[in-house]
Amino acid sequence: MLLLLLLGIPITGILIVFIYINASWHDRLDFSLNKRIKYTGLTTSIVNLFLSFIIFIGFDFSSNQFQFVREYHQISYFDFYLGVDGLSIYFLLLTTIITPISLLSNWTSISENIGSYVIIMLLLETLLLFVFLVLDILLFYIFFESILPPLFILIGFFGSNNRVRACFYLFLYTLLGSLFLLLSIVTMSSIMGTTDFDALYKTNFQYFSQLFLFFGIFIAFAVKTPTIFLNTWLLKAHVESPLGGSIILAGIVLKLSLYGILRLILPLLPKAYLDYTYLVYLIGVISIIYASINTLRTIDVKELIAYSSVSHASVYLLGVFSNTIQGIEGGITLGLGHGFASSGLFICAGGVLYDRSSTRLITYYRGMSQIMPLFSIFYFILCLGNVGTPLTLNFIGEFLSLYGIFERLPIVGALACSSILLSAAYTINMFTKICFAGSFSKFFISNIPDLNKREFYILFTLVAFTIIFGVYPSPILDGLHYNVSCLIYQA
């Protein structure tokens, strides 16, 4: 019942916003209406956050079985299953934490079509929760792809100047890549006669079948990660998207490929997964180096953070393909840490600096620490998290991921360690140029105030998660350990 409530609360919020809009259709500029719509969306997402914490508290981490299972038989020609296990519970929490933050981030910057914006954000939360809760591979694909139309509309309605091109890049890249995933799912269904996760986990496909299925599924997730030559859509989507869209993209959508690998490739295709790890590692290392070098030369703040997301996504991709407990746990932990740190950096770049000065170019900023000391402190801590400094959650994830890569292929592990140096180079370079690098321009004295209460609480929340779990990661690692161990031995 708790999972149905988790999915039903955002849908209820959408219906309430629809009622508000229809009741006041004649007065589109009613400020009290806009305020009610905003608070409805925020209240809905916060209630969902508390409900997800209740599910987490009641979850039994000593079992690797799906829990809170709801079964609805014979809906259409397949069965509708919902459930959560020790892997999906953390992605569930990440989704419910990031959604209210993304709504608060655009609290004042979006003043038109507020109802549409809130509806899209709540719809995205519902669809993302479905991805992490469904226990049928066909439903997984359906909800995996269903996030594209809301993202397309979100960027198209509320994005920057070049938003149309960004919309089509996002839609076409990810849709075409996911067609290979659909072909693989149809193949598995035709072989086994079922699309249920539990039934598929008990099968053993022939080696050549595993090869074709592996490459079909991996292509879809390589686009979603994204890897080298498949990352054009992400850069354009991040740069042109509104702030809330960038947070959802970096914090949750990029983790769909990580979750899909844990759910589809590792348990279903173990032979192909073990034999073609070297190919994945080659792609991942090239992605890390390519993205990091491009990050060093970019002058757009949001584009720089987007490129760094590509680099970190490649690290956790390599971690989960290491076939070691440390590597898989590190990949999941790095994914969670990246969700907090990158969301905070996007808020600093797009929600604080851009909202005050209307430019994303690093060259226009210098000496911000002199007029925005509170902002500079939070920005510095988030930059340290992005680098993977000790006492941050990103450090735990990156260290374990690289350890797992070393265990599997030491030479590739040594090359992957270049991400430590390169991320420190581009992140600290960005921070010093913005917060130091000489005296500030006189234009900023009267136009850039320091953080307000809303921005302070948002950034404080993300920094708190980054540091608390960096100092004490046991709630994450202990909860993952048994399920990851079962995943390894099952494969």
UniProtKB/TrEMBL annotation:
GO terms for molecular function: NADH dehydrogenase (ubiquinone) activity; NADH dehydrogenase activity; ubiquinone binding. Keywords: Electron transport, Membrane, Mitochondrion, NAD, Respiratory chain, Transmembrane, Transmembrane helix, Transport, Ubiquinone. It is an enzyme of class 7 (translocase). It catalyses: a ubiquinone + NADH + 5 H(+)(in) = a ubiquinol + NAD(+) + 4 H(+)(out). The keyword Disulfide bond does not apply. The keyword Mitochondrion applies. It is found in: Membrane; Mitochondrion membrane. Pfam families: Proton_antipo_M. The chain crosses the membrane at residues 6-25, 37-59, 87-107, 114-132, 138-158, 170-191, 211-235, 247-266, 278-297, 304-325, 331-354, 374-397, 409-436, 456-474. GO terms for cellular component: mitochondrial membrane. Signal peptide: none annotated. One of its GO terms (biological process) is electron transport coupled proton transport. Its EC number is 7.1.1.2. Its main location: membrane. Core subunit of the mitochondrial membrane respiratory chain NADH dehydrogenase (Complex I) that is believed to belong to the minimal assembly required for catalysis. Complex I functions in the transfer of electrons from NADH to the respiratory chain. The immediate electron acceptor for the enzyme is believed to be ubiquinone. Core subunit of the mitochondrial membrane respiratory chain NADH dehydrogenase (Complex I) which catalyzes electron transfer from NADH through the respiratory chain, using ubiquinone as an electron acceptor. Essential for the catalytic activity and assembly of complex I. Belongs to the complex I subunit 4 family. This is NADH-ubiquinone oxidoreductase chain 4. The lineage of its organism: Eukaryota, Fungi, Dikarya, Ascomycota, Pezizomycotina.
